[in-house]
């Protein structure tokens, strides 16, 4: 068992030996901190400096090219598809309903689902053309 006593002048250690137990001693060395060591620690910025900013910019570039840019292209493609709808076009709704456009208004469509069955739907619920495949793959 090791006991450690610290007073204002230095460090003293006292060792008590127990029979059959391995003997250990502790030595504490005090070294003054020099001005050169403090200057070296103060000059290095925390977090790596310019490498931190390079990593942040690389992550933003990756997110742009793999997430934001393709999503923007898909959104423009869907917007153009919905603006170009006309009477007689075959469509698929977000709910999976196949139909033929009977009437186009500014924000809605009248579609024929079956003979004498028509539905009025919002233009934003049109997700694709069954002949070209579904455009908006979620």
Descriptive overview:
A hairpin with a 4-residue loop joins β1 and β2. The protein has helices at residues 35-43, 50-83, and strands at residues 2-6, 11-15, 90-93, 98-104, 108-114, 117-122, 126-129, 133-134. The protein is elongated, with a radius of gyration of 37 Å. With 138 residues, the protein is an alpha+beta fold. The protein is 31% helix and 29% strand. The strands form 2 sheets. Strands 6-5-4-3-7-8 form a 6-stranded antiparallel sheet, covered by helices on one side. The chain has a two-stranded antiparallel ribbon with strand order 1-2. The model has no long low-confidence stretch (mean pLDDT 79). The chain has 2 helices and 8 strands, in the order ββααββββββ.
Which geometry do the CA atoms define? elongated
Mean pLDDT: 79
SSE-based structural type = alpha+beta
> What count of helical segments does DSSP give?
2
Radius of gyration: 37 Å
* Main beta sheet strand tally, sense and closure: 6 strands, antiparallel
Q: What is the straight-line distance between the termini? A: 67 Å
Spans with pLDDT under 50 lasting ≥5 residues?
Answer: none
Strand content: 25-35%
The largest beta-sheet arranges its strands as 6-5-4-3-7-8
């Amino acid at each position: 068992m090791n006991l450690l006593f610290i007073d204002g002048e230095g460090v003293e250690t006292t060792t008590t030996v127990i029979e059959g137990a391995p003997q250990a001693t502790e030595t504490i060395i005090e070294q003054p901190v020099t001005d050169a060591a403090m200057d070296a620690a103060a000059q290095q910025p925390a977090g790596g400096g310019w490498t931190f900013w390079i990593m942040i910019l690389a992550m933003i570039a990756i997110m742009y090219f793999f997430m934001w840019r393709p999503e923007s292209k898909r959104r423009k493609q869907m917007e153009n598809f919905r603006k170009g709808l006309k009477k007689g076009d075959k469509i698929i709704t977000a709910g999976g309903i196949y139909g033929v456009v009977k009437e186009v208004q500014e924000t809605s469509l009248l579609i024929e689902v079956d003979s004498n069955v028509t539905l009025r739907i919002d233009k934003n619920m049109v997700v694709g053309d069954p002949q070209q495949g579904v455009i908006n793959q979620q």
